[in-house]
## 1
Amino acid sequence: MVYTGPQPGSSEQISAIVEELRGLYPQARYELNFTTPLELLVATILAAQCTDERVNAVTPQLFAKYRSAQDYAQVGQEELEQDVKSTGFYRNKAKTLRAVCQYLVDHYHGEVPQSIDELVKLPGVARKTANVVLVNAFGVTEGFIVDTHVGRVSKRLGWTQHEDAARAEQELMRLIPRSEWSSLPHRMIYHGRATCAARKPRCTSCTLVAYCPSAII
DNA sequence: CTCCCGATAT
DNA sequence: ATATCAGGAG
């Protein structure tokens, strides 16, 4: 089957997809549970290569036990490891949480900074985590969230060829109107989970097939 | 590029 | 059995 839709990456193809996804997922939002910027930062760090559902199963007890950056900075490595174990990569994640929170204590009185330049200086925080915290905690849109789903869906739609998330983000920021930066990534993630799955994409039930050069019907 | 890593879907 | 999950560091 040869793709005959609008050129991948063209404004015609992009606007058609944006409108379709808006209709499909009008209420798309971040699904990790949190009540403060610090909780959001912690949950997002735990979400690396782990489902939201798994993180949400761990954070109620975690947030009840650790109420401030000082709490994470002061706990022992092995104790924190056990508290985050079921999210996988638990040694790295415990080490990252302790280092990030020590940094917050040292530089920001334990608060979470509100610019991307400051956030990406935190140990274990790169563009994806920084963008998530900015948008969902502070309502600030400085970049385009590129996680595993956004990266995969973007490649299949022909928006980027880059595997590297930072390079993909730069290309998406060039292609996508800024007004869509805060909502589109969440909708792409919903679509990536529900339809454009990594292993077995459901192209036959996908309403983007007319705009997707990778569709297999 | 490799490593970290438990839980789940296929 | 194996790929994948709202990644990032060395």
## 2
Amino acid sequence: MGTTPLPRIFYARDTLEVAKDLLGKVLVRSAGDRKLAGRIVEVEAYKGLSDPASHAYRGENGRARLMFGEVGRCYVYFVYGNHYCVNVVAKSSRAKAGAVLLRALEPLTGVEVMRRNRGTEDKFRLTSGPGRLTRAMEIDLKLYGTDLTKLGSLYIGDGGLRPEEVIVTAARVGVTRAGQRPWRFLIAGSEYVSVSPGQGAVSKTQLPLKAGLPQAKSRRYRQ
DNA sequence: GGGACGATGTCCT
DNA sequence: GGACATCGTCCCC
């Protein structure tokens, strides 16, 4: 699992569909002789020109230009003077721009390096948040524009949901410019998500999530 | 050219 | 629950 990069056609579909299908896939960071990897458990979709919360909302300018280009590349940006966030460009052929923000991972490979990078031993907090996961995985602006469909310093490998896993749909986090659009998707019951739907930050004792939350159909991407 | 603020995380109370 | 770190962008002088 996670050794073959997803092909470009995976990303050439509706942004919301790609977002949901990215759950369970594996983000891989190769840095020198090190390999860091984590399973994607939480994402958010940003729909370009029709989405006031998207950096692409104001048009094809500056850093956002990338979201109007080739799908399957990564859009990295810097926020709050402290953190990097990583997105994947994904959109149907009709859409002008679109991207999926990676919000949380389940650490798989290189956990000790991630602990060092994050300065904490708590495995549930190493990669449970967009800023945390980039810190753990050593992702910054140098990787802006990296082609994630090629075996390289950063790519997304195959994988999928386990049969019992269900996708939960929720409002996006930290978004102030668009009304509450239910464009956040996470794996129900994962102990590695950032913010549980309708609650504050996730702590170990609040988990696992159980049924009763609004849900989207669980589905698998066919290789 | 400058000021406000953000797709956040951490520490403190 | 709230302050604040800290800087790239955007938007409006």
